[in-house]
Specification:
A hairpin with a 3-residue loop joins β5 and β6. The chain has one domain: Sortase, Chain: A, CATH 2.40.260.10. Helix content is about 0%, strand content about 40%. The protein starts with 7 loop residues before the first strand and ends with a strand. It is mainly beta and about 150 residues long. It has an eight-stranded mixed beta barrel.
Length: about 150
């Protein structure tokens, strides 16, 4: 079952940049993002499911969970821990700047509608991290993508 709105139900760990942050359902600023959570985009896949597990997080203020996602490199691990499993995704693509309205980056097969050639072309098991860029503005979005490498039951 889907978690209820604004409920934390997972933990995102990004070892390369020292992040450990709760994941909550929804992307409301007041109920989720401004509480220091990373928000799960409604109507995107849940961890480990086929499709795209898409997340949003502040780059500055409110805990700044995605402050340094621009430093992630191909091969870096993104671990999502739930009560029942640990899902390990591996970074393999990024988009340094796109429009805040580029909804393609969080689709089931994530692919930019603004910056052609960025994203994926085949169905799979994906994770997407989105945040504002440049720092201290919300003019554009920075996107980091990864694919599922493993799942371990708890």
């Amino acid at each position: 079952p889907r978690p209820r709105g604004d409920q934390a139900y997972a933990v995102l760990r990004i070892p390369r940049i020292g992040i450990r942050v709760p994941v909550a359902e929804g992307i409301s600023k007041s109920a989720v993002l401004n509480q220091g959570y990373v928000g799960h985009y409604p109507r995107t896949a849940q961890p480990g499911q086929a499709g795209n597990f898409a997340l949003a997080g502040h780059r500055n203020t409110h805990g700044e969970p995605f402050r340094y996602i621009n430093r992630l490199r191909d091969g870096d691990e993104l671990r999502v821990e739930t009560g029942s499993a640990v899902y390990t995704y591996v970074v393999d693509k990024a988009l340094a700047r796109t429009s805040p309205r580029d909804g393609g980056v969080i689709r089931s097969v994530p692919r930019s509608e603004v910056r052609k050639g960025y994203g994926y072309s085949e169905p799979g098991f994906y994770i997407t991290l989105t945040t504002c860029t440049p720092e201290y503005t919300s003019k554009y979005r920075l996107v980091v993508w990864g694919t599922l490498r493993s799942m371990r039951a708890r």
